[in-house]
Amino acid sequence: MKSLELNLIFSEKTLDNAKYIAPFSADCFPFSLPSIISMLKHQIQFAIEGLDTVFTDVEKDILSAAFLTTLIAPDRRTKEILVLNVEALYIYEPSTIDALDEKKSVNKHEFIDKLKKLNEFEAFSVIQMSQKSNSDSDIDERMAEIIDYLASPEGIQQNKDGFRV
Known about the structure:
7 helices, 5 strands, about 55% helix, two-stranded antiparallel ribbon, alpha+beta, single chain
């Protein structure tokens, strides 16, 4: 697995009216990084379960088609990516939409508005839900592999510049 450098996060603290910059490290948090990742996995799963009833089966199929080959850049807003990908599918691949929605049960504008009303975490979870249906491996299996690696002795190591994964 390729190593990834994580820099220390600095926070401005106040102590007796004097401000100073304090670096956060893994032991400053109430949870270890592997447990935070594990919690994130569960929160995404809970969000997916909650959003599962928001979308019809046809809308879920459209979402899956919209994210068949999309990679998410970490510096982009997931809600923006979600809406743009679905709009692009309607514009550039109308035959895909027609094949998925033979009965014309999905109103494009209402569907797009529904996506626009999601918050960033819900949009991220919808993309994960869509990609999960396109993937051969389950998200739980992939997350378990990451968590196992991070919890291993070679996983997270702190050095003077931050954390090395």
